[in-house]
Design goal:
Strand order of the largest sheet: 3-2-1-4-5-7
Radius of gyration: 19 Å
Largest sheet: 6 strands, parallel
Helix content: 40-55%
Mean pLDDT: 97
Bound molecules: (3R)-3-hydroxy-L-norvaline
Length: 310
């Protein structure tokens, strides 16, 4: 039985739906600090859970016979820069609670997302490899990079089968994004459909690694399904799909909405974006567990414009 922590979030909600589709609604207990989101309501059991409360989390695991945890609760990059110590405390305490309980209860498997935000200005800008110079300059990136080392520690020392993916920016329409820097690529669709124009908080030529939610969910399930012997790292796997700039996604939208216009007013998030790679080398994921993206910019744009409710 699976526990999803952070089921109210952008990825947690869709992961909950995908896991319920795969294993059956009753097999997936969704949890979040906030009340049950409309996206998952009625598709299976839900409980509120503050991921900082280890006792409460442990109680839920024992009461429900949980054997796997997907931990999707975190403070993202932009919000994290506004409240650094709060972000560090939440991101690390919640992860250590999950790892400790996985050790004590001998859970079968744990999933925890890292991010391309672990990379900093000293990392290679293009085709950034999985193993390279990693000097994060955002609190979010610092917490994700530290978390990767903790995951490896619990695997090496206690045999906890925890697996992780460094997600790029994830684009989706089913749930609101959670305060990230890449979220301009979601906002742009809502704005284009609502007003026909968008003011981007990133400069026009800011390339960032991105991925459509369908690809991110499928990658997560494929990683978690892979035989343990195929998993060559319990830190985290680089994952890439598409790299584009605000200028490029605007041009793609214009193919569908010729009247669409964009302007640029970079804010504090520009510095965050500039510290990250423009594209990712995900050859390890392709080699170890057969990763292959399906959505390119054109296919994603068409799907977003078809489904976004402005
Ligand atoms: C953020 N969407 O912007 C997240 C992600 C790579 C970016 O980690 O913070």
């Amino acid at each position: 039985k699976i526990l999803v922590i952070g089921a109210g979030g952008q990825i947690g909600g869709e992961l909950t739906l995908a896991l319920r589709k795969k294993f059956g609604g009753a097999q997936v207990l969704a949890s979040d600090l906030r009340e049950e989101s409309p996206l998952i309501k009625g598709t299976g059991p839900f409980t509120t859970l503050d991921a900082l409360n280890k006792e409460a989390m442990h109680q839920i695991v024992k009461e429900h016979g949980i054997t796997q945890i997907y931990h999707l609760a975190a403070v993202l990059s932009a919000v994290g820069e506004k409240q650094p110590l709060m972000a560090w405390n939440i991101n690390m305490t919640a992860l250590l609670n999950v790892l400790e309980i996985a050790k004590e209860e001998h859970l079968k498997r744990v999933y925890w997302p890292s991010s391309i935000a672990v990379f900093g200005p000293s990392s290679p800008k293009d085709n950034c490899p999985q193993q390279t110079i990693v000097e994060p300059t955002t609190v979010y990136g610092i917490s994700k990079y530290a978390g990767e080392s903790w995951c490896n520690y619990y695997f090496e020392k206690y045999g906890v089968d925890v697996r992780s993916i460094r997600y790029p920016g994830i684009i989706s329409y089913k749930a609101a994004p959670g305060g990230g820097t890449t979220d301009y690529a979601i906002d742009i669709f809502h704005s284009a459909l609502k007003t026909g124009t968008y003011t981007s908080f990133l400069k026009q030529d800011t390339y960032l690694p991105m991925m459509y939610m369908e690809d991110a969910i499928r990658a997560t399930l494929e990683l978690m399904d892979a035989p343990l012997e195929n998993i060559k790292t319990h830190r985290s796997y680089n994952l890439g799909a598409i790299s584009f700039s605000p200028n490029e996604i605007a041009a793609e939208i214009k193919k569908h909405l010729p009247e669409f216009t964009i302007e640029y007013q970079p804010d504090f998030r520009q510095a965050i974006a500039d510290s990250w790679p423009a594209s990712i080398d995900d050859s390890e994921a392709r080699k170890d567990w057969g990763w292959e993206p399906e959505f390119d910019l054109a296919k994603m744009t068409a799907d977003m414009l078809k489904n976004v409710k402005p």
